[in-house]
Amino acid sequence: MSSDESLSASHPTFPPDPAFTAQANGTAQMYADADADHEGFWAAQARERISWATDFDQTLDWSDAPFAKWYVGGELNAAYNCVDRHVEAGNGDRVAIHFEGEPGDTRTITYADLQREVSKAANALGALGVGKGDTVAIYLPMIPEAVVAMLACARIGAPHSVVFGGFSAEALNTRINDASCKIVITADGGYRRGAPSALKPAVDAALDHAETTVEKVVVVKRTGQDTPWNEGRDLWWSDLLDAASETHEAQPHDSEHPLFILYTSGTTGKPKGIFHTTGGYLTQCAYTNSVVHDVHPESDVYWCTADIGWVTGHSYIVYGPLANGATQVMYEGTPDTPHQGRWWEIIEKYKVTILYTAPTAVRTFMKWGHDIPAKFDMSSLRLLGSVGEPINPEAWLWYRKYIGGDRCPIVDTWWQTETGAIMISPLPGVTTLEPGSAQKPMPGISAEILDDEGHPFTEPEKVGYLVLTKPWPSMLRGIWGDPQRYKDTYWSRFGEKYYFAGDGAKYDADGNIWLLGRVDDVMNVSGHRLSTAEIESALVSHPKVAEAAVVGASDETTGQAVVAFVILRQEHIEEADEFGEGVDLVKELRNHVAKEIGPIAKPRTIMIVSELPKTRSGKIMRRLLKDVAEGREVGDVTTLADSTVMNAIKQGLGD
Ligand code: WT7
Question: Where are the stretches annotated Disordered (predicted)?
Answer without folding.
Answer: 1-22
